Amino acid sequence: MAKKAFTVDFQSRFYDDVANAVKYYESRQAGLGKRFNKTVIQTLKSIKLNPYYRVFYADVHCRQVGVFPYLIHYTIDTLNRLVLIEAVICAYQDPNDAYIKN
Q1: CA distance 98 to 82
Q2: How far apart are CA 8 and CA 31, in angstroms?
Q3: Which of 15, 30, 37, 102 sits between 20 and 30 A of 22, alpha carbons compared?
């Protein structure tokens, strides 16, 4: 019997982060923003099936978005099988400014 996937919920910041990254990549090369967005979706599907990836700080897990230098930051509520997607942050940003504050 297959394991039940986790439910995924999103903070509003996530949508802003993705939109900004798509806009940036599209300005660099036509179609690259679309490719980034597609890769985000694939990464989210992977997180939904198996969210237990490396904890980067506090209780926040991070998963890289394919070959892009972005990390999806999320927390896990194991009891309720819920993954809360907090943000998508460029790994080149200063962690003190960019990471999720508890």
Answers
A1: 23
A2: 27
A3: 102
pLDDT at 97: 62
User: What domains can you pick out in the chain, each with its CATH number?
Assistant: 7-98 (3.30.2310.20)
Residue percentage of the chain with pLDDT more than 90: 76
101: helix, strand or coil: coil
Whether pTM exceeds 0.70: yes
Q: Which of 77, 70, 71 is nearest to 52 (CA)?
A: 77
pLDDT in tens, 81-101: 999 999 999 988 766 665 555
Give me the residues paired with residue 98 across strands.
none
Cβ count near 49 (within 10 Å) = 12
Q: Give the contacts of 69 (CB within 8 A, at least 6 positions apart).
A: 90, 91, 92
User: E strands within the chain?
Assistant: 7-10, 55-57, 60-64, 70-77, 82-90
